[in-house]
Amino acid sequence: MMDITKPHRISYLLDEVDHLARIRNMMAFRFTAGIISIILLPCAWSFSPISSTAVHRGRSRSAIEKGVYSPTTDALFRVKASFSTVRSDTSVAVETKNPTDLADSETASAVSPPPSSDRISVPRPKTHYTVPGFKVGWQDAEGNWFDEDGPRNGPPQNYWRQAADDREYSKNMEAVDAVLSGTDMEETLRNLEKRCGVRFPSLNRKILGSWAPLLHCGVNLVANPDDAATGKDIEVPFTVDVFRKHGRKLGPKNHYGVFDAKLENGEELTIKTNTVARGSSPCGTVVADEKNESLVLGNVEHVNLDMPLTFGKITYISDYVLIQRYGEGGLDLWLRCDDSYLGVDI
Q1: Does position 47 have pLDDT exceeding 90, yes or no?
Q2: What is the rounded radius of gyration, in angstroms, for the C-alpha atoms of the chain?
């Protein structure tokens, strides 16, 4: 063993202490660097280049905000004379034109509108008050109460239920106005769909009746959106009837009236379209199913587009409007154009 004298021993120990200090400092530096990298790494991710997918999605949202869905007075639609009969035994894949993939323009199409003689005019539906038989009341800005007979002392009987019905009607008409104007349409429809409390919309009795498609495959069908926005009748190229194949079936009478009975799984429904030129054209028979699958009933031609007429994938149903989404970008909004939702007088 090497003989280390006292001076040499002191020098050796000092070297060892210095070496240990360098090791400690290196370890502390590495530990600090590791902590800093953990803190800064998420920030680095947030400033990384945007992927092409993100850019595409951002452009889609921008297209919606810019009004790709906005209505146009120059849409010409023709319903095919013959429709294929389809049953809901088989699920059908639907290919549609995605409105968000269209060019970033103010309108979704640019062709001549159909002649006024080929349009069907439909008024907006009336408010359905849950409890019938009471006068509708309202209050002016000064706090005075009125009904159809004039001034009154305080709110009419059952006013608060009427007010709730009025609010529901207003929410539905906001969706109609959004389609007509093309302003915040997607957001408005999404908010309305969130209010749908129906578990099986495809079995709900409210799908029965006559409907005017205002939006079809994401494209506006209304020929007079500006006039319609002021309260005038809405002009559309065709309407759709949905009814029980074997005749109307009513439910039991209750305190609110008599209405169509709830649909059962397996019930057959007939769907037909109505146009000025061809009158009533049967589209086919579908089977009511809680699965709420989308079925192709035929085609609607629009110059360069070939859009399917579908039924199913209902995301919202009320007395006033029906919304369905299907395929890639398929979005329909139908407006009630009969009074079956008001019940039957017995």
Answers
A1: no
A2: 32
What six digits make up the tokens of 21?
Answer: 């200090």
pTM, two decimals, is 0.67
Tokens representing 142?
Answer: 């000064």
The rounded distance, in Å, linking the Cα atoms of 62 and 344 is: 46
Lowest mean pLDDT among 22-31, 67-76, 137-146, 153-162: 67-76
Q: Are 300 and 77 in contact (CB under 8 A)?
A: yes
Q: Which amino acid is at 295?
A: L
Alpha-carbon distance of 300 to 83, in angstroms, equals 10
> Cβ(286)–Cβ(295) under 8 Å?
yes
d(CA 215, CA 236) in angstroms, rounded, equals 10
188, 172 Cβ separation under 8 angstroms: no
pLDDT of 280: 66
Q: What digits encode the pLDDT tens for the residues 128-183?
A: 999 888 888 889 999 999 998 999 999 888 888 999 999 999 999 999 999 999 98
Question: Do residues 205 and 229 lie in contact, with contact meaning Cβ atoms separated by under 8 Å?
Answer: no
- Is the Cβ–Cβ distance between 147 and 271 less than 8 Å? no
- C-alpha span between 187 and 189 (Å, rounded): 6
> For strand 209-216 and strand 150-152, is the pairing parallel, antiparallel, or unpaired?
unpaired
Separation of CA 256 from chain center: 29
Q: CA-to-CA distance for 111 and 277, rounded, in angstroms?
A: 20
Could you tell me if 333 and 320 are in contact, meaning their C-beta atoms sit under 8 angstroms apart? no
- List the structure tokens of 294: 């989308």
Q: For the ranges 82-86, 133-137, 229-233, 257-261, which has the lowest average pLDDT?
A: 82-86
